[in-house]
DNA sequence: TATTGTTATACTCTATAACTATA
DNA sequence: TATAGTTATAGAGTATAACAATA
């Protein structure tokens, strides 16, 4: 543990503010409705994971990427299957496992959803200079990594 | 809605990563145990609100600052009273209202807790230059404000 | 014997609704 | 009639435990 300069204590309320606004606003659900689907945050998270991966993922892999636990993913995937947005296919390499892939409808929906989310994010940053945007991206990425690593060690 | 430059899509996973690590890690609870208390996140949030305010706050004011709803605060304050960390006092200006204040034990506990949290945050940023730290603080604050405002408007 | 996924259950956090007391 | 707070209840999100099938 090092010394605690004054600038740190100003970051703390900001982090809590960000965490609140991201975790509790109805923005995600609203954007989902805009995309013509009507899903909650966790199922959208799975859709995004599959979209960003660009290939079918195993249940355990999705859970790892979302930093949640297996059974949680199982239930959400059932919901996505019920809606025709994803499907489970056999894993050719391992008969125990299944791979989850987007259906065409799911791929289309996640595209529309992303457009809305990125649009709102772009609006939030519309008053920013290009340089400040780049700097934010760089520092935010580094910060997220450093904080994740530090808190993981804290958790042992 | 404006265009969506490429740098935005790199920010998105970072935000989700930050949100996850802040919201789900056991760090808060661990830091609380370090401080000799053993509280969950919402009650610690109330303790922090009272500490930062530096004066007794009404239930409704705490709820507004934490961006939660009244009944939630009521229950957490009961828990804090039960543990002797806070107490409710009459509001001299309004017989309907109560003000919540830290007890000496509560003030001491929140001090120890803050020390642990800021220590970990300082460790996470220990490899950073002073300038990058200042810049992070500045951009993070602006970002939190802009995003909060944009999402509030999105929610109507 | 270890691992993948599933089913069933429980816990944490927050919200909504109905109510009491005071303004 | 409106406001501050409380009580009771419900919901979303995630975790743990016990189990099945395959490696």
Account of the protein in words:
Two copies of one chain form a homodimer. Chain A is mainly alpha-helical. In chain A, 69% of the residues lie in helices and 8% in strands. Chain A has helices at 6-24, 27-34, 41-53, 59-66, 70-82, 104-124, 130-154; strands at 57-58, 86-90, 98-102. Chain A has a three-stranded antiparallel beta sheet with strand order 1-3-2. The model of chain A has no long low-confidence stretch (mean pLDDT 90). Chains A and B meet through helix 1, helix 3, helix 6 and helix 7 of A and helix 1, helix 6 and helix 7 of B. Chain A binds a DNA duplex (23 and 23 nucleotides) through residues 24, 40-42, 58-60, 68-75, 91, 94-98.
CATH topology of the largest domain in chain A: Arc Repressor Mutant, subunit A
How many domains is the backbone of chain A divided into? 2
Largest sheet of chain A: 3 strands, antiparallel
| Total DSSP helices of chain A | 7
Structural class of chain A, by secondary structure, is: mainly alpha
